[in-house]
Amino acid sequence: MMCAGTIVQFKIPRVVIEENVNFEGNIEFLESPGVEVVLAQDEACIQLMDCFVREKPELWAEDIAEE
User: Fold this and answer.
1) CATH top-level class for 2-63?
2) What's the pTM?
3) CB 42 within 8 A of CB 19
């Protein structure tokens, strides 16, 4: 939410998201004030994020503020 809020606050017009399989993020929040969201769903990025989440769950939880 911090990144999405910053994007909206500073009126960044377009954001490219490489994947949202491992973490959905806040796409609707970004789109509501008119931010163009491009969702790439890059397979290499999806696999990389999946590997990171499985191998470093404590870091992932910290990154997404679950711990």
Assistant:
1) alpha beta
2) 0.80
3) yes
